[in-house]
Amino acid sequence: MTTPAPVEALGPLVVRTHPIDDPGDLIELLPTTPDALAWLNGGDGMVAWGAAVTFDTAGPHRFAQAQEWWQEIIASAVVRDEVGKRGTGLIAFGTFTFAGEPGSTLVVPEVVVGRKDGACWLTTIRPALNRDTPLVSTPINEPTAVSFEDGAVDSQKWQGIVASAIARIQAGQLDKVVLARTVEAQLDTALDVRAPISKLATEYRSCWTFLVDGFFGSTPEMLVRLDGGLVTSRVLAGTIRRTGDAERDLALAGTLAHSSKDLEEHEYAVRSVADALASHCTAMNVPEVPFVLHLPNVMHLATDVTGVLRDRSGLLSLVESLHPSAAVGGTPTSDALALIAEIEGFERGRYAGPVGWISASGDGEWGIGLRSGQVLDSGDRVRLYAGCGIVANSLPSDELAESEAKLVPVRTALTPRQ
Prior knowledge:
Radius of gyration: 21 Å
Largest sheet: 13 strands, mixed
Structural class: alpha+beta
Helix content: 25-40%
Number of strands: 23
Protein backbone atom coordinates (compact mmCIF):
# COMPACT_ATOMS: atom_id res chain seq x y z
CA MET A 1 0.00 0.00 0.00
CA THR A 2 1.13 3.56 -0.62
CA THR A 3 1.66 6.10 2.11
CA PRO A 4 -1.70 7.78 2.83
CA ALA A 5 -2.32 11.47 2.37
CA PRO A 6 -2.43 13.50 5.57
CA VAL A 7 -5.83 13.41 7.22
CA GLU A 8 -6.35 17.16 6.83
CA ALA A 9 -5.82 16.84 3.05
CA LEU A 10 -8.63 14.35 2.63
CA GLY A 11 -11.49 16.38 3.95
CA PRO A 12 -14.01 14.74 6.28
CA LEU A 13 -15.11 11.18 5.59
CA VAL A 14 -18.85 10.95 4.97
CA VAL A 15 -20.22 7.79 6.56
CA ARG A 16 -23.72 6.39 6.18
CA THR A 17 -25.08 3.12 7.59
CA HIS A 18 -28.59 1.93 6.79
CA PRO A 19 -30.45 -1.37 7.21
CA ILE A 20 -30.75 -3.79 4.29
CA ASP A 21 -32.38 -7.15 3.63
CA ASP A 22 -30.23 -10.19 4.31
CA PRO A 23 -27.83 -10.38 1.34
CA GLY A 24 -27.08 -14.09 1.77
CA ASP A 25 -23.50 -15.31 1.53
CA LEU A 26 -21.37 -12.34 2.59
CA ILE A 27 -18.19 -13.71 1.07
CA GLU A 28 -19.73 -13.93 -2.40
CA LEU A 29 -20.28 -10.15 -2.24
CA LEU A 30 -16.54 -9.52 -2.08
CA PRO A 31 -14.77 -8.45 -5.25
CA THR A 32 -11.77 -10.46 -6.43
CA THR A 33 -9.45 -7.54 -5.79
CA PRO A 34 -6.63 -7.02 -3.26
CA ASP A 35 -8.70 -4.52 -1.28
CA ALA A 36 -11.18 -7.18 -0.07
CA LEU A 37 -11.62 -7.38 3.72
CA ALA A 38 -13.48 -9.77 6.01
CA TRP A 39 -14.14 -10.57 9.66
CA LEU A 40 -16.56 -13.47 10.22
CA ASN A 41 -17.66 -15.65 13.13
CA GLY A 42 -20.52 -18.12 13.40
CA GLY A 43 -22.12 -17.04 10.12
CA ASP A 44 -22.23 -13.37 11.13
CA GLY A 45 -19.68 -10.63 10.65
CA MET A 46 -18.59 -8.10 8.06
CA VAL A 47 -17.12 -8.00 4.59
CA ALA A 48 -15.76 -4.83 3.04
CA TRP A 49 -13.86 -3.48 0.08
CA GLY A 50 -12.32 -0.31 -1.29
CA ALA A 51 -10.05 2.03 0.63
CA ALA A 52 -11.44 5.41 1.62
CA VAL A 53 -8.17 6.01 3.46
CA THR A 54 -5.33 3.82 4.76
CA PHE A 55 -2.49 4.15 7.24
CA ASP A 56 0.74 2.14 7.09
CA THR A 57 3.19 1.96 9.95
CA ALA A 58 6.12 -0.04 11.29
CA GLY A 59 8.44 -0.23 14.25
CA PRO A 60 7.97 -0.36 18.03
CA HIS A 61 5.51 2.57 18.11
CA ARG A 62 3.19 1.21 15.41
CA PHE A 63 0.19 0.74 17.73
CA ALA A 64 0.42 4.23 19.24
CA GLN A 65 0.84 5.78 15.80
CA ALA A 66 -2.18 3.88 14.50
CA GLN A 67 -4.27 4.91 17.54
CA GLU A 68 -3.36 8.58 17.03
CA TRP A 69 -4.21 8.42 13.32
CA TRP A 70 -7.53 6.72 14.05
CA GLN A 71 -8.51 9.41 16.54
CA GLU A 72 -7.84 12.05 13.89
CA ILE A 73 -10.05 10.19 11.39
CA ILE A 74 -12.87 9.91 13.95
CA ALA A 75 -12.69 13.59 14.85
CA SER A 76 -13.17 14.74 11.27
CA ALA A 77 -15.77 12.19 10.08
CA VAL A 78 -19.43 12.97 9.41
CA VAL A 79 -21.46 9.92 10.44
CA ARG A 80 -25.10 8.98 9.96
CA ASP A 81 -25.77 5.57 11.50
CA GLU A 82 -29.36 4.32 11.22
CA VAL A 83 -28.61 0.86 12.70
CA GLY A 84 -26.50 1.47 15.81
CA LYS A 85 -24.98 -1.99 16.28
CA ARG A 86 -21.43 -3.19 16.87
CA GLY A 87 -19.60 -2.75 13.59
CA THR A 88 -21.89 -0.09 12.12
CA GLY A 89 -20.85 3.47 11.37
CA LEU A 90 -17.19 4.34 10.88
CA ILE A 91 -14.85 1.35 11.19
CA ALA A 92 -11.36 0.31 10.17
CA PHE A 93 -9.86 -3.12 9.55
CA GLY A 94 -6.25 -3.75 10.39
CA THR A 95 -3.31 -6.09 10.68
CA PHE A 96 -0.06 -5.57 12.56
CA THR A 97 3.24 -7.36 12.09
CA PHE A 98 4.59 -9.52 14.89
CA ALA A 99 7.89 -7.72 15.49
CA GLY A 100 7.41 -4.31 13.90
CA GLU A 101 8.66 -5.09 10.41
CA PRO A 102 6.86 -3.28 7.54
CA GLY A 103 3.33 -4.48 6.82
CA SER A 104 1.19 -3.04 9.63
CA THR A 105 -1.84 -1.27 8.18
CA LEU A 106 -5.25 0.18 9.04
CA VAL A 107 -7.83 0.40 6.25
CA VAL A 108 -11.04 2.41 6.33
CA PRO A 109 -13.04 0.70 3.57
CA GLU A 110 -15.43 2.37 1.16
CA VAL A 111 -18.15 -0.27 1.50
CA VAL A 112 -19.04 -2.52 4.44
CA VAL A 113 -21.79 -5.14 4.49
CA GLY A 114 -22.55 -6.61 7.92
CA ARG A 115 -24.84 -9.06 9.64
CA LYS A 116 -25.31 -9.60 13.38
CA ASP A 117 -28.13 -11.38 15.23
CA GLY A 118 -30.46 -11.15 12.22
CA ALA A 119 -29.83 -7.45 11.52
CA CYS A 120 -28.09 -6.58 8.24
CA TRP A 121 -26.61 -3.28 7.15
CA LEU A 122 -24.69 -1.44 4.47
CA THR A 123 -22.16 1.24 5.27
CA THR A 124 -20.58 3.54 2.71
CA ILE A 125 -17.52 5.59 3.64
CA ARG A 126 -16.14 8.14 1.23
CA PRO A 127 -14.45 11.56 1.27
CA ALA A 128 -17.45 12.80 -0.74
CA LEU A 129 -21.23 12.48 -0.86
CA ASN A 130 -22.49 8.90 -0.68
CA ARG A 131 -23.75 7.35 -3.85
CA ASP A 132 -25.75 4.18 -4.53
CA THR A 133 -23.79 0.97 -4.00
CA PRO A 134 -25.28 -2.07 -5.74
CA LEU A 135 -24.49 -5.39 -4.06
CA VAL A 136 -23.61 -8.14 -6.54
CA SER A 137 -22.75 -11.75 -5.71
CA THR A 138 -20.25 -13.44 -7.99
CA PRO A 139 -19.26 -17.13 -8.16
CA ILE A 140 -16.15 -18.06 -6.20
CA ASN A 141 -13.32 -19.52 -8.28
CA GLU A 142 -11.96 -22.65 -6.64
CA PRO A 143 -8.26 -23.48 -7.07
CA THR A 144 -7.71 -26.40 -9.44
CA ALA A 145 -4.22 -27.53 -8.44
CA VAL A 146 -1.86 -26.80 -5.56
CA SER A 147 1.44 -28.18 -4.29
CA PHE A 148 3.10 -27.67 -0.90
CA GLU A 149 6.74 -27.53 0.14
CA ASP A 150 8.72 -26.56 3.23
CA GLY A 151 9.36 -22.87 3.58
CA ALA A 152 12.46 -21.07 4.83
CA VAL A 153 13.37 -23.92 7.22
CA ASP A 154 12.72 -27.56 6.32
CA SER A 155 11.03 -29.87 8.82
CA GLN A 156 14.22 -31.73 9.76
CA LYS A 157 16.16 -28.54 10.46
CA TRP A 158 13.19 -27.13 12.36
CA GLN A 159 13.28 -30.07 14.78
CA GLY A 160 16.93 -29.26 15.40
CA ILE A 161 15.99 -25.65 16.18
CA VAL A 162 13.36 -26.90 18.63
CA ALA A 163 15.93 -29.16 20.28
CA SER A 164 18.32 -26.23 20.75
CA ALA A 165 15.52 -24.18 22.33
CA ILE A 166 14.68 -27.04 24.72
CA ALA A 167 18.35 -27.20 25.79
CA ARG A 168 18.34 -23.49 26.59
CA ILE A 169 15.12 -23.79 28.59
CA GLN A 170 16.51 -26.76 30.54
CA ALA A 171 19.63 -24.68 31.21
CA GLY A 172 17.44 -22.04 32.87
CA GLN A 173 17.84 -19.30 30.24
CA LEU A 174 14.05 -18.92 29.85
CA ASP A 175 10.81 -20.75 30.66
CA LYS A 176 9.06 -20.98 27.29
CA VAL A 177 9.49 -19.95 23.68
CA VAL A 178 7.07 -20.21 20.74
CA LEU A 179 8.77 -21.30 17.52
CA ALA A 180 7.06 -21.05 14.13
CA ARG A 181 7.66 -22.63 10.74
CA THR A 182 6.36 -21.92 7.24
CA VAL A 183 5.08 -23.96 4.31
CA GLU A 184 4.76 -22.58 0.78
CA ALA A 185 1.71 -23.32 -1.39
CA GLN A 186 2.04 -23.00 -5.17
CA LEU A 187 -1.21 -22.73 -7.16
CA ASP A 188 -1.64 -23.10 -10.90
CA THR A 189 -3.43 -19.73 -11.19
CA ALA A 190 -3.83 -16.57 -9.11
CA LEU A 191 -5.79 -17.33 -5.94
CA ASP A 192 -9.37 -16.17 -5.51
CA VAL A 193 -8.90 -15.68 -1.77
CA ARG A 194 -12.67 -15.91 -1.25
CA ALA A 195 -12.36 -19.67 -1.82
CA PRO A 196 -10.21 -20.48 1.21
CA ILE A 197 -11.93 -17.99 3.53
CA SER A 198 -15.32 -19.42 2.53
CA LYS A 199 -14.16 -22.91 3.51
CA LEU A 200 -12.58 -21.66 6.72
CA ALA A 201 -15.69 -19.70 7.74
CA THR A 202 -17.83 -22.81 7.15
CA GLU A 203 -15.57 -25.38 8.81
CA TYR A 204 -14.37 -23.24 11.74
CA ARG A 205 -17.49 -21.34 12.73
CA SER A 206 -16.34 -20.88 16.33
CA CYS A 207 -13.14 -19.20 15.11
CA TRP A 208 -12.75 -15.70 13.68
CA THR A 209 -12.14 -15.83 9.93
CA PHE A 210 -10.24 -12.79 8.66
CA LEU A 211 -8.92 -11.21 5.49
CA VAL A 212 -6.87 -8.00 5.45
CA ASP A 213 -4.47 -7.06 2.65
CA GLY A 214 -4.07 -10.66 1.47
CA PHE A 215 -3.46 -11.99 4.99
CA PHE A 216 -6.17 -14.55 5.78
CA GLY A 217 -7.02 -17.36 8.16
CA SER A 218 -9.30 -18.54 10.96
CA THR A 219 -7.94 -17.77 14.39
CA PRO A 220 -9.28 -19.50 17.50
CA GLU A 221 -7.59 -16.93 19.75
CA MET A 222 -9.15 -13.56 20.59
CA LEU A 223 -6.37 -11.24 21.72
CA VAL A 224 -8.84 -8.63 22.96
CA ARG A 225 -12.49 -7.75 22.49
CA LEU A 226 -13.89 -4.47 23.79
CA ASP A 227 -17.65 -4.13 24.08
CA GLY A 228 -18.97 -1.11 25.96
CA GLY A 229 -16.22 -1.28 28.58
CA LEU A 230 -16.13 -5.07 28.94
CA VAL A 231 -12.73 -6.47 27.99
CA THR A 232 -12.33 -10.13 27.00
CA SER A 233 -9.23 -12.06 25.98
CA ARG A 234 -9.27 -15.76 25.02
CA VAL A 235 -5.99 -17.51 25.77
CA LEU A 236 -5.04 -20.74 24.02
CA ALA A 237 -1.93 -22.76 24.81
CA GLY A 238 -1.63 -26.53 24.92
CA THR A 239 -2.76 -28.51 21.88
CA ILE A 240 -3.60 -32.08 20.92
CA ARG A 241 -4.62 -33.40 17.51
CA ARG A 242 -8.07 -34.95 17.03
CA THR A 243 -8.48 -38.41 15.57
CA GLY A 244 -12.04 -38.18 14.25
CA ASP A 245 -13.20 -40.94 16.61
CA ALA A 246 -15.56 -39.41 19.20
CA GLU A 247 -14.63 -41.74 22.07
CA ARG A 248 -10.93 -41.51 21.37
CA ASP A 249 -11.11 -37.72 21.15
CA LEU A 250 -12.94 -37.56 24.47
CA ALA A 251 -10.15 -39.54 26.07
CA LEU A 252 -7.55 -37.29 24.44
CA ALA A 253 -9.35 -34.23 25.79
CA GLY A 254 -9.00 -35.68 29.28
CA THR A 255 -5.32 -36.35 28.66
CA LEU A 256 -4.82 -32.76 27.51
CA ALA A 257 -6.64 -31.37 30.54
CA HIS A 258 -4.24 -33.22 32.86
CA SER A 259 -1.01 -32.89 30.86
CA SER A 260 1.66 -31.24 33.02
CA LYS A 261 3.54 -30.03 29.93
CA ASP A 262 0.45 -28.42 28.40
CA LEU A 263 -0.83 -27.01 31.69
CA GLU A 264 2.57 -25.42 32.29
CA GLU A 265 2.56 -23.86 28.82
CA HIS A 266 -1.01 -22.64 29.35
CA GLU A 267 -0.26 -21.12 32.75
CA TYR A 268 2.51 -18.97 31.28
CA ALA A 269 0.15 -17.66 28.59
CA VAL A 270 -2.73 -16.89 30.97
CA ARG A 271 -0.42 -15.14 33.42
CA SER A 272 1.02 -12.90 30.70
CA VAL A 273 -2.45 -11.81 29.55
CA ALA A 274 -3.76 -11.23 33.06
CA ASP A 275 -0.70 -9.17 33.98
CA ALA A 276 -1.03 -7.05 30.83
CA LEU A 277 -4.73 -6.32 31.43
CA ALA A 278 -4.35 -5.62 35.14
CA SER A 279 -3.10 -2.07 34.54
CA HIS A 280 -6.19 -1.26 32.43
CA CYS A 281 -9.01 -3.19 34.13
CA THR A 282 -10.92 -3.71 37.36
CA ALA A 283 -13.19 -6.59 38.40
CA MET A 284 -10.98 -9.05 36.54
CA ASN A 285 -11.93 -12.71 36.30
CA VAL A 286 -9.08 -15.15 35.67
CA PRO A 287 -10.37 -18.74 35.88
CA GLU A 288 -8.03 -21.10 37.73
CA VAL A 289 -8.78 -24.09 35.49
CA PRO A 290 -8.83 -23.98 31.66
CA PHE A 291 -11.50 -25.61 29.52
CA VAL A 292 -10.88 -27.73 26.44
CA LEU A 293 -11.82 -25.98 23.19
CA HIS A 294 -12.83 -28.51 20.51
CA LEU A 295 -12.07 -27.55 16.90
CA PRO A 296 -12.48 -29.80 13.85
CA ASN A 297 -8.75 -30.65 13.67
CA VAL A 298 -7.33 -30.03 17.16
CA MET A 299 -8.25 -29.40 20.79
CA HIS A 300 -6.76 -26.59 22.88
CA LEU A 301 -6.59 -25.70 26.53
CA ALA A 302 -8.46 -22.37 26.70
CA THR A 303 -9.15 -19.66 29.27
CA ASP A 304 -11.32 -16.56 28.87
CA VAL A 305 -9.89 -13.66 30.88
CA THR A 306 -12.33 -10.76 31.44
CA GLY A 307 -12.30 -7.36 33.08
CA VAL A 308 -13.95 -3.94 33.14
CA LEU A 309 -12.01 -1.13 31.50
CA ARG A 310 -11.14 1.42 34.18
CA ASP A 311 -9.21 3.99 32.17
CA ARG A 312 -9.64 5.71 28.82
CA SER A 313 -7.17 3.49 27.02
CA GLY A 314 -8.04 3.09 23.37
CA LEU A 315 -8.54 -0.41 22.04
CA LEU A 316 -5.24 -0.29 20.18
CA SER A 317 -3.52 0.58 23.47
CA LEU A 318 -4.93 -2.65 24.89
CA VAL A 319 -3.66 -4.48 21.81
CA GLU A 320 -0.21 -3.00 22.38
CA SER A 321 -0.21 -4.03 26.06
CA LEU A 322 -1.19 -7.61 25.24
CA HIS A 323 1.08 -8.24 22.26
CA PRO A 324 2.98 -10.48 22.24
CA SER A 325 1.49 -12.76 24.88
CA ALA A 326 3.31 -15.86 26.07
CA ALA A 327 1.02 -17.86 23.75
CA VAL A 328 2.86 -16.51 20.68
CA GLY A 329 6.16 -15.27 22.12
CA GLY A 330 7.21 -16.95 25.32
CA THR A 331 8.30 -16.28 28.91
CA PRO A 332 10.08 -14.09 29.89
CA THR A 333 8.96 -12.07 26.90
CA SER A 334 12.24 -10.26 26.17
CA ASP A 335 14.30 -13.45 26.38
CA ALA A 336 11.85 -15.38 24.21
CA LEU A 337 11.71 -12.68 21.54
CA ALA A 338 15.50 -12.51 21.43
CA LEU A 339 15.70 -16.28 20.97
CA ILE A 340 13.05 -16.22 18.22
CA ALA A 341 15.01 -13.55 16.35
CA GLU A 342 18.22 -15.58 16.77
CA ILE A 343 17.15 -19.10 15.75
CA GLU A 344 13.74 -19.13 14.03
CA GLY A 345 15.22 -18.41 10.59
CA PHE A 346 12.63 -16.09 8.98
CA GLU A 347 10.60 -12.93 9.59
CA ARG A 348 7.09 -13.71 10.80
CA GLY A 349 5.55 -10.66 9.16
CA ARG A 350 1.88 -10.58 10.15
CA TYR A 351 1.82 -14.14 11.49
CA ALA A 352 0.95 -14.16 15.22
CA GLY A 353 0.39 -10.40 15.10
CA PRO A 354 -2.93 -8.70 15.91
CA VAL A 355 -5.61 -8.66 13.20
CA GLY A 356 -9.16 -7.33 13.45
CA TRP A 357 -11.29 -4.20 13.42
CA ILE A 358 -12.05 -1.07 15.43
CA SER A 359 -15.06 1.26 15.43
CA ALA A 360 -15.42 4.95 16.10
CA SER A 361 -17.02 4.11 19.47
CA GLY A 362 -13.79 2.37 20.46
CA ASP A 363 -15.32 -1.11 20.43
CA GLY A 364 -13.84 -3.82 18.28
CA GLU A 365 -12.22 -7.23 18.09
CA TRP A 366 -8.58 -8.13 17.55
CA GLY A 367 -7.57 -11.73 17.15
CA ILE A 368 -4.11 -13.23 16.89
CA GLY A 369 -3.13 -13.99 13.29
CA LEU A 370 -2.91 -17.78 13.65
CA ARG A 371 -3.97 -20.64 11.33
CA SER A 372 -3.12 -18.18 8.62
CA GLY A 373 -1.58 -17.57 5.22
CA GLN A 374 -0.27 -14.57 3.31
CA VAL A 375 -0.95 -14.26 -0.42
CA LEU A 376 2.38 -13.27 -1.93
CA ASP A 377 2.83 -10.61 -4.59
CA SER A 378 2.66 -13.11 -7.47
CA GLY A 379 -0.93 -13.96 -6.49
CA ASP A 380 -0.43 -17.68 -7.16
CA ARG A 381 1.67 -18.41 -4.08
CA VAL A 382 0.68 -18.46 -0.40
CA ARG A 383 2.90 -18.67 2.67
CA LEU A 384 1.35 -20.74 5.49
CA TYR A 385 2.39 -20.42 9.13
CA ALA A 386 2.19 -22.53 12.28
CA GLY A 387 3.88 -22.28 15.68
CA CYS A 388 4.28 -24.33 18.85
CA GLY A 389 5.01 -23.50 22.47
CA ILE A 390 8.27 -25.07 23.60
CA VAL A 391 8.89 -25.83 27.30
CA ALA A 392 11.44 -27.92 29.17
CA ASN A 393 9.84 -31.33 28.54
CA SER A 394 8.85 -30.73 24.91
CA LEU A 395 9.87 -33.29 22.26
CA PRO A 396 10.88 -32.03 18.78
CA SER A 397 8.98 -34.79 16.95
CA ASP A 398 5.80 -34.03 18.93
CA GLU A 399 6.14 -30.33 18.20
CA LEU A 400 6.52 -31.03 14.47
CA ALA A 401 3.34 -33.13 14.58
CA GLU A 402 1.54 -30.34 16.41
CA SER A 403 2.66 -27.79 13.79
CA GLU A 404 1.35 -30.06 11.04
CA ALA A 405 -2.02 -30.22 12.80
CA LYS A 406 -2.11 -26.42 12.98
CA LEU A 407 -1.36 -26.16 9.25
CA VAL A 408 -4.37 -28.33 8.38
CA PRO A 409 -7.05 -25.58 8.26
CA VAL A 410 -5.34 -23.36 5.65
CA ARG A 411 -3.74 -26.27 3.79
CA THR A 412 -7.15 -27.92 3.41
CA ALA A 413 -8.81 -24.60 2.49
CA LEU A 414 -6.36 -24.19 -0.40
CA THR A 415 -6.74 -27.77 -1.63
CA PRO A 416 -9.21 -28.29 -4.54
CA ARG A 417 -12.43 -30.05 -3.61
CA GLN A 418 -12.48 -33.70 -4.66
